[in-house]
Specification:
mainly beta; six-stranded antiparallel β-sheet; about 0% helix; about 45% strand
């Protein structure tokens, strides 16, 4: 049978063709599942047989094909040294691609799905194999600012390092000035809107920078003066006023100090007053910007009293300098009182 070879037997005795003799001696070679030596060589009847396990079945064969049990070799044959030897193959797995030896000339390939992987890109996170040979994750975008270096670090947030500390930047706020990069990575400026004026005229002298202008050329001396008697403006204490009872012609002005808008988005002029009208007289609230001509903000030609708030923003540019004046034009008429002057930016 294919598992047992009987070889080198001899006939003994006498007689024709061994008559009265016996066939004996020789050797028995076994090649089966339990007894085998891979590539053992036996010559029987002039034919060389090998004990091989081709296709997983152990038996004697004249063919040289065998299986060395190593899946990373192929075309295994019994060589001249009676050793089962094949051609080696190397199968190397890569990211999200598994390659394995299978005893053939090529590698068996499989693609894992859902297993964690590393695509080497710090700007992705939660990376897994997609079952098609790719390592995919969620992308994060890190964008630098003037004051902060944002960088990818492999997770859902960006790492950050302050940069350009002390350098000029723009915080995007039109109200702030002198913006610089801070050690926190933020661009920070200081408030450029500092306009906050309130003159309550508590003293009898003019506030610093204020003046009274006499344009009528009269000799009476009845111009803008300070008083604390009978404050009918709605304020308390002192105020400035001009009395038109005593002169034939008035054109007198109470002029404020010079103020600066800065970066304030809006500027509000406020004052308390008591204007007593008579036919032929007028009261003007006027503004001069950066030393330019006087423009009229409000004209009074009827009795008016109390607190007034009015925007003068439209007259001003950023960082404009301005003055306010109260001009009284009359002809032996009544009066105008001014108190609690304010100029406020916001």
């Amino acid at each position: 049978d294919a598992n047992t070879l009987y070889y080198a037997k001899t006939c003994t005795g006498c007689g024709l063709n061994g008559a009265n003799g016996a066939c004996g001696g020789g050797s028995t070679a076994v090649c089966n599942e339990t007894t085998h030596t891979l590539c053992q060589r036996v010559t029987c009847g002039g034919t060389v047989y090998r004990c091989t396990n081709a296709s997983g079945v152990w038996q004697w064969r004249s063919a040289l094909g065998c299986d060395d049990g190593n899946l990373c070799s192929y075309n295994d044959v019994c060589n001249a040294s009676d050793v089962c030897d094949g051609t080696d193959i190397t199968c190397t797995s890569s990211l999200c691609v598994n390659r394995a030896c299978d005893g053939t000339v090529s590698c068996a390939v499989s693609y894992p799905s859902g297993s964690a992987c590393d695509d080497g890109n710090l700007c992705t996170y939660n990376t897994t194999c997609n079952g098609a040979g790719s390592c995919l994750g969620t992308t994060v975008t890190c964008t630098d600012t003037t004051c902060m270096d944002y960088y990818c670090d492999g997770d859902s947030t960006c790492g950050q390092t302050p940069i350009n500390i002390g350098s000029t930047c723009d915080d995007g706020d039109p109200v702030t000035i002198s913006d610089t990069c801070q050690s926190t990575g933020l661009c920070v400026g200081v408030d450029g809107c500092t306009l906050s004026v309130l003159e309550q005229f508590t003293a009898s002298s003019l506030p610093a920078g204020w003046s009274v202008e006499d344009y009528d050329g009269d000799a009476y001396g009845y111009d803008w003066v300070w008083s604390s008697a009978s404050n009918t403006t709605g304020g308390t204490g002192g105020y400035w006023w001009v009395d038109g009872h005593y002169a034939a012609s008035y054109d007198d002005r109470l002029v404020s100090a010079l103020y600066q808008r800065g970066t304030c988005p809006t500027v509000t002029l406020s004052y308390r007053h008591d204007y007593n009208y008579n036919v032929g007289d007028y009261a003007y609230v006027q503004i001069s910007v950066d030393g330019g001509t006087w423009q009229t903000v409000t004209t009074y030609s009827a009795d008016a009293t109390g607190l007034v708030n009015t925007s003068i923003t439209s007259y001003l540019s950023a960082n404009s300098n301005f003055r306010i004046r109260f001009r009284y034009v009359a002809n032996t008429d009544w009066y105008w009182k001014i108190d609690d002057f304010g100029a406020t930016g916001s």
